[in-house]
Amino acid sequence: MWDGDDANLDHVSYFLPAPGPNSWKVIVVLEELQVPYEIVSFRFEDVKKKPFIDINPNGRVPAIVDPNNDITLWESGAIITYLIDNYNPKRLITYDTLREKNHLNQWLHFQMSGQGPYWGTAGHFNVLHPLKLPTAIERYNDQVTRVLGVLDEWLEGKEWLVGDKITYADLAWLPWNDRLESVLLCPADDKFAGFPNVKAWHERMASRPSWKKAMETRARLMDEQGLDWHGMPKGIDTMKEYEEKMAADEKAKASK
């Protein structure tokens, strides 16, 4: 286990396309723990191709390769748990008491099962799907609202999800909540309307240097790759257009 001394620590390689929220859950934890890392960024259309599928056969990001412990991992929740267990000697963003430790794990799992899938699917039907399907839009927007309600009620009178300090369980919610206006297609000032506790909680996290640095890195990578806010190339607005472009690019590449 790491003792906090960078002198004997190799950089962890972290694989991601720049747009996806799940990748930045891990980046902000790496920043909070001050673990040396290097980003290996690649385009979304390469996520299901070699060499990345040699690292994650499921073809999803993020993934890490850690030479310090000779381990490769994928799934953002698994990576966060690994980092907390192996790179957090001072217990900066966790607890090691039985009750708190398991409550942190509980909220992390709720983020992965509740927030991530619902926010992502709501964003797909609101923004990317070529046809507007009112029943699907209503279904997933309602689920976003429901989960926000759970959080807002829990956070009444509290600053953090567990205990009296920020933890990885809080930080895991940050990237998807940060782009909620893009998911729901609403003004940024209205994305937490009706959920004042969630709004205040989010703002506490978003003001941290770790998050600001992560978002500066994301903006730079997005610009370098010519990507718009939704992760697709600038000038392309729907997933159908993006899929057609990728297919045309592959066809042109094969014909050479």
Automatic annotation (TrEMBL):
Source superkingdom: Eukaryota
Protein known as: Glutathione S-transferase II
